[in-house]
Amino acid sequence: MSDLLELQRRFAAAVMHPLTKNETMPRRRRDGVANTSEAAALIKPNDRLTGFERLEIYNRQYWFRLYTSFEEDFSGLRAIMGSTRFDRLMRDFLTECPSESFSLRNLGSQLEKWLLAHPAYLEPRSQLALDMVRLEWAHIEAFDSGEDPLLDADDLASIDENSRLHLQPYLRVLELHYPVEDLLIELRNEAGSSDSSSNNASVARKTRHVRRVAMLPPEQIFLAVHRHQNSVYYKRLDREDFRLLQLLLSGAPIGQAIDFAFEDSVIPEDARGPWLQQIFASWSTFGWFTQ
Amino acid sequence: MPANRFNGFTEYGVGIGLRIPHYQHILTRKPLVDWFEIISENYMIDGGRPLQVLDQILDQYKVVQHGVSMYFGSVSDPDPEHLRRLKRLVNRTKTPWLSDHLCWGSVDGRYTHDLLPMPYTWEAVKVTAERIRGVQDFLEIPVVVENVSSYAEYHVSEMTEWEFLNEVVERADCGILLDVNNIYVSSQNHGFDPFSYVNAVSAERIAQIHIAGHSKFEKYILDTHDHPVLEPVWQLYARTIERAGPTATLLEWDDNIPTFDEVHAEALKANRFLHATAAKISAPVSEFVFQGAAQ
Prior knowledge:
The complex is a heterodimer. Chain A has a domain at 145-178 and 218-291: Outer Surface Protein A, domain 3, CATH 3.90.930. Chain A is built from 13 helices and five strands. Chain A is 55% helix and 8% strand. In chain A, the strands form two sheets. Chain A has a three-stranded antiparallel β-sheet. A two-stranded antiparallel ribbon of chain A has the order 1-5. In chain A, strand 3 and strand 4 form a beta hairpin. The model of chain A has no long low-confidence stretch (mean pLDDT 93). Chain B has one domain (5-282): Divalent-metal-dependent TIM barrel enzymes (TIM Barrel, Alpha-Beta Barrel). Chain B has an eight-stranded parallel β-barrel with strand order 1-2-3-4-7-8-9-12, surrounded by four helices. In chain B, strands 5-6 form a two-stranded antiparallel sheet. A two-stranded antiparallel sheet of chain B has the order 10-11. In chain B, helix 7 (194-200) runs parallel beside helix 8 (231-244) and helix 8 runs parallel beside helix 10 (270-282). Mean pLDDT of chain B is 92; it is low at 286-295. At the A-B interface, helix 1 and helix 3 of A face helix 2, strand 5, strand 6 and helix 4 of B.
């Protein structure tokens, strides 16, 4: 191994190791390695700082930068969990799943998967919290995913039941158990308001919002997260809309997607034709169908 | 030498960093600005508002790309997806040169998202120069590397930071984005004369200069980009353009961002030095010595 690679691995291991509760660099790491001796071996002291203290600057910078980005991406999850439990989740998730992308935008890409493998972090509001994670990640993807050219009239005219419709890359559909989109909108409106009330009052309001949603009986919600004129929107869907979009997004032919949408549907047989015409027209207006 | 092959033979004047809080002001008021520097990673996406705003800016202004995650000094190869997206953005912006930092920040596929200091060793010179050459060949535009501010020095270093910078840019045949605030910050943290650094840098390779503010703590100085430029940094700036000639200059202000007009006014203070230097260069005899500037 090259000397440079060894140095970078040792430095990164120290920098990416979690901070103590006091947000300082631990003297000894979880794997037993002493940061004091690692710092002394790698870093020169100066007349004001030891090698350990100089390395600690980078250790703290690393975590503060990641925390800032993660908190911004998952502010709804933080409101649901409370800051203490959210901070523990954030630290443990980022320790196990450090960034593997050049962009901080992707920092939370593995969060849902990680939480499904570590459900204890979300108790006792597991379903509510998981719904929020799904919504917040879908929002990130809807915000900056690509936008393909729309289908033109000729394309639309040539569609039959065997056609596969392409949908906008920014469109996401979610099946949720709580109306978390209402909660997230309220939280974001509050964060963006010019209300000059104290932080304590703001925290109290957030807590009230969360409690109100958590008290609601679980309710199956279908949601499209999409973009219009560069703003992200949440659109409630019916069960049939959701199932149809879900299959179209998976690349299934239209006929198969329609059959799936109407399985166990309450929509009467004779109303299905007009229903399909209406939703296809509506989605076309949104610009969801692409070439 | 305001224009050289490392900045695509451009004469760009004084620019400022394009930041989200200023989007609305710029798009509606259309202020006169020589150029904007964008953080490449903010626009290496597939769609949405950032790219729409960028396209509107590109319609009216010159834009230069500045990256924060190429990590020329990392041993691991660059992520091909990163390079592909970067090249797509280069084609969109037509940036005449592209800058990123002389640092490392990823190892074994894991990213720290920080600008970590290099050990100034011959092995690091070789690795870094090869990587810069590879990126430059792929992007097909001039690449310039920026010195970072640092808070740690390695026992294994075999040369000074400025010797390391000169060796790397010579072997990579690339330009320099000289951040004089970073030089000042590092000089205070490591106890060297910042003018020794400025006086030693290969002046003919300086393609761009960064100026910024910093924060002083009890035992060290942090490169925070949240203040106006401090006087010692202006002195280093003046010395740099005395050596390199009036060079494309950019003010970085990334935190506690004030109004657009305040940021722009701070950036335009650079003109005081640019104009003075230009006048002295055109004058027959030049006597231009700054306090503390080693000759």
